[in-house]
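Appendix C: a fully annotated inverse folding record. The material below is reproduced so that readers can follow the format used throughout the book. The structure is listed first as tokens, followed by the designed sequence.
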């Protein structure tokens, strides 16, 4: 984990209300794992005082560039969207536990809903690097409200993965949810491993739709205070020994969890 200021290389709007930022950091680029997140101060001063947790979207290891893809949804991210290339960004991270890398003989599905799909692309980069000859076993399912909000379709095609897309209004691909699309496409057999990012209702539907033998890891979204497991603002319930339940800190025990262990 590092806490330092890094120079912003670029920060621009990629589609309405959504921005892509890149900053240069040798430390983070060389140590971060897919699924981990960064705790970012969104302003040069002290207001707003709390950092914002943002997932790592992509990493260019040759240039030591770290990318975050974020949606403007409040004052903090609004201020972040106004930062310019050349300014210094205060970053704490990488934080949390990431995804378990798949075995090269596994059939894999990655599934994302809206901006929640952002951290899947770092995982896709690592899968392509380590399992390039097996990418035919990888399928990517993305859903969004409309075609303008589907994340990274061009990148998925360029990387050579099979992409399937769903929109609520039917403006692109399948009309319906990404879970509906998954059930429509995956009618025979079962993936060995599923990675998912998105809102909690999507996870509940996925738990019902997926084969019970599939290994499912999900990246949980939650507001955070400290990002270090001290403030107790991002607690969720998980299954403990026997029939017991336990409190888990999303920031330090997650944000990636075994879906079967989360209690909604």
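Designed amino acids, in order:
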């Amino acid at each position: 984990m590092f806490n330092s200021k890094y120079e912003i290389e670029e920060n621009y709007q990629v589609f309405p209300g959504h921005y892509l930022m890149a900053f240069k950091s040798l430390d983070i680029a060389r140590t971060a794992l897919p699924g981990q997140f960064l705790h970012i101060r969104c302003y040069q001063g002290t207001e707003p005082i709390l950092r914002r947790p943002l997932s790592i979207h992509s990493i260019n290891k040759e240039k030591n560039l770290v990318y975050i893809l974020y949606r403007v949804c409040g004052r903090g991210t609004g201020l972040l969207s106004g930062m310019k290339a050349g300014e210094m960004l205060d970053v704490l991270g990488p934080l949390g536990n990431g995804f378990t890398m798949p075995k090269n003989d596994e059939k894999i599905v990655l599934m994302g809903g809206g901006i929640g799909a952002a951290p899947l692309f770092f995982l896709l980069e690592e899968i392509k690097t380590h399992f390039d000859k097996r990418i035919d076993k990888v399928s990517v399912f993305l859903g969004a409200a409309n075609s303008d909000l589907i994340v990274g379709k061009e990148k998925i095609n360029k990387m050579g993965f099979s992409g399937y897309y769903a929109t609520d209004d039917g403006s692109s691909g399948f009309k319906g949810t990404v879970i509906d699309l998954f059930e429509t496409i995956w009618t025979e057999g079962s993936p060995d491993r599923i990675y998912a990012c998105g809102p909690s209702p999507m996870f509940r539907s996925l738990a019902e739709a997926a084969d019970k033998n599939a290994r499912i890891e999900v990246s949980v979204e939650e507001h955070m205070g400290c990002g270090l497991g001290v403030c107790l603002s991002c607690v969720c319930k998980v299954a403990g020994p026997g029939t017991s339940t336990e409190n888990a800190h999303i920031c330090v025990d997650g944000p990636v969890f075994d879906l079967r262990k989360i209690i909604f």
